[in-house]
Amino acid sequence: MSTEKRPPLDRTRVADTALRLLNEVGLDGLTLRAIAKELDVKAPALYWHFKDKQALLDEMATQMYRRMLAGTALDPSDTWRERLLKANRGLRAALLGYRDGAKVYSGSRFTGLVHVEQMEDTLALFTAAGFTLAQAVRATSSSYYYTLGFVTEEQGVEPLPGERREGFDVTERARLMADFPLSAAAGAEMFQDFDQHYEEGLALLIAGIEQRYRPTGPSPSAPRE
């Protein structure tokens, strides 16, 4: 029997292990039994820390957010446009770092108040720019939903960057749809160049927010892209 002293089993260690395993097996293969095996413990030991898989996913999403914050510094000189660009680009990059990252994040609830400081700062920035609080919430949450949905679909095609899922051959798709030329040609727009596709969609969203709400604060400088 090994006498090597192992670190104590706690929520952080379980979540970190689950995030590492996620890239190997994906969300469907991420069972409590598989995580317990990776930790060299019995599955019931995990129930001391998480009542079910969703509770674990909540902690995983919280850990993902903490890691994202560590690599993203808020700039008090940001315009509202710049803040939306930075926050959403940062979120997309974080989600793409994990197989099924968007699925893990979607619908999860943070296990603490790790997000509140950034949320407060962003809402203050928006209201100072002339948005009402309700408009600030709609603008930030709509961009968040866009990013989350986009990455969910993106990872359905490329589970990890550079790894393309079988069945998304654009040339073969065009051949099968030869009688529908516009739909056939659309495949190249839908299932390739995700970076460009995402940026154009985000720009459209920001333009729509400004057109819809027309914030009354001082006119900010053009966003630094």
- Strand fraction: under 5%
Work out the helicity level.
55-70%
Low-confidence stretches: 219-223
- Secondary-structure-derived class: mainly alpha
- Overall pLDDT confidence: 89
Biggest sheet, open or closed, and with what strands and sense? none
Number of helices: 10
Shape label = flat
Radius of gyration: 21 Å
Distance between the termini: 57 Å
Tally of DSSP β-strands: 0
Question: N-to-C SSE series?
Answer: HHHHHHHHHH
Write up this protein.
The protein is mainly alpha-helical and 225 residues long. The protein has helices at 11-29, 32-39, 53-70, 80-95, 101-105, 116-128, 133-157, 170-176, 181-190, 194-213. The longest helix is centred in the middle third of the chain and has 25 residues, at 133-157. It is flat. Mean pLDDT is 89; it is low at 219-223.
